[in-house]
Amino acid sequence: MKSTHVLILLGLLAACKSQPKEKETEAPANAPKAEPIACYQYATAADTITLKLVNMGGTVGGALIYKLKEKDMNAGTIKGTLRGDILLADYTFKSEGTQSTRQVAFKKTGNAFIEGYGETTNVNGVEQFKNADSIVYSSSMKLEEIPCK
């Protein structure tokens, strides 16, 4: 009888043993939280450029997609800074199965962004603007603010 009590006691102890906690998936308290900024798009019957931005606590990140007629579609992520009305970011994307990184620049005008172009140079495999102050923002492809999906 005593061995039966011991077995019952061991069974109860095993059943009461707490399960280990699962790893918490929350970001650490000091990690920057991604806060939405806005979404922008240029769209015609043939061409679409979509820019989705989030504020990541000091930096700006998001997604950028180009679908231009007679050009290969490319989609990727951006990470950079928004200083005043200028967004300067590295765009990492895949096109034709190859991953590339190039710098992009957009100027905020009202509720829209206009992409900037300028002379570039290759620095460690990344196309970068030679002089950010000489970027020209005169593109006819104005990315208007749209509701984020």
Could you characterize the architecture of this molecule?
With 149 residues, this protein is mainly β. It has one domain (35-146). It is built from one helix and ten strands, in the order αββββββββββ. It has one helix spanning 2-16; strands at residues 35-43, 48-55, 60-67, 74-83, 86-95, 98-109, 112-115, 120-123, 126-129, 142-146. The chain has an eight-stranded antiparallel beta barrel. Strand 4 and strand 5 form a beta hairpin. The radius of gyration is 25 Å and the shape is globular. The relative contact order is 0.14. Mean pLDDT is 80; it is low at 1-32.
Largest sheet: 8 strands, antiparallel, barrel
**N-to-C span:** 68 Å
Give the class from helix and strand content and strand pairing: mainly beta
As laid out across the biggest beta sheet, the strand order is 1-2-3-4-5-6-7-10
Strand content: over 45%
Which parts are unreliable, with pLDDT below 50 for 5 consecutive residues or more?
1-32
- Count of domains: 1
User: Treating each run of at least 4 consecutive H or I residues as one helix, how many helices?
Assistant: 1
Percent of residues in helices: 10-25%
- Rg value: 25 Å
The outline comes out as globular
Organism: Niastella koreensis
Protein name: Lipoprotein
